[in-house]
Amino acid sequence: MGCPYLEYRRESNELAFDHERAYCTVADRFVQPMRADICNDRYDLEHGDHCEIYRAHADGDGAGNDDGAGADRSSEEGTDG
Description:
Layout: E1 6-12, E2 15-24, E3 29-30, H1 33-39, H2 47-50, H3 52-58, H4 73-76
Antiparallel strand pairs: 1-2, 2-3
């Protein structure tokens, strides 16, 4: 079973997209497709073992912060890519 904090959205605030994008509700941002693979437990990956955002939240930290490497900055800037 995939991460309970992953959603797919077509819009965010005033931005709208042609297709759904992976959104992490813990980090409160869109994430790159490679991170979504972890969230969906694809390729022998498990979100509980391989996602630092999930682990930080599950450990009670609640921050869910990482170094930003998984953020999909293109969607935050309104570009499609």
